[in-house]
Amino acid sequence: MSRHRKRGKPQTVDYFQKLNRQIDDPEAPVRIVAPDGLSTLNPRPSFPVYLKQLWDRRFFIGAEAKSKALRSTRDYRLWRMWLVVNPILDVAFYGFLFGVLFQTSRGIENFLGYLIIGIMFMRMMSGLLSDGSGLITKSKSMIRTFAFPRASLVFSQTLRALIDNLLPAIVALILAFLAQWGKFPHWTVLLVIPLYVLMHIFGCGLMLIAARLTAEVPDIKAVMPLATRAWFFLSGVMFSLDRFSHVPVIQELMSHNPAYIFLTAVRDTSIYQSVPDLNTWLVLSAWSFGSLLIGFVYFWGAEAKYVRLA
Asked: How many domains, in total, are found in the chain?
């Protein structure tokens, strides 16, 4: 009680009403406050400080990701099974559509394995991009309540996707090997592990960019599904780029698509039992870490706005 007495007696409703009348009075004296003594409410920290803040919250990022992992289908009775069944149903649909009706399987060795790896691993990359859409708005309660580096939301979501996608990736490889019964896996399949990690680093960069874009321009969320589907169909998921050999310009452009390079590398190291050349590894590393760096700097640039944009 003594602490409250030192602060003075509590103000009544009449006091605040009188204060409001004084503020609304056009003849009231105007007091100009010097801006030198004012500070920004939510300032953007410097880049080194921002990195340190993220590092200090690494345990929170890990704990949040683990608590939400493998729970995207928890409302269903067979919820964890759908993490695997959904991609398999996609494979069955696209296999019938493109392999049987459109005959895109011609000239592709182990087309079923080719299709399984393409669909399941492409779902991972496109899913990471989609997760960034509206991430700031979805997390508005936490953003408005606590002060923390907002990029930790993206890193937590990426780590969660890394865990969620592990089971579908293993199932995709098993089914792809079963599709070429009698041909045993080669040691090169171990190279899928670094490719899997690079794929999620690349996706994290995309998520950072998408999170800020959709926070500042919400209308982008309306075209994001279309962009994701277009990227899916233009990445050689269901067909070989040799089909466009008669149009060299299109073939060249599509061959530089990072998703196509990732899918080709995963297929080569698994079902085709070959090691990607050094140039492929350098290109994938450049795409992965380059997108992460650019996305992180771009996301950090609007750090002071996210409380208002959420």
From this structure: 1
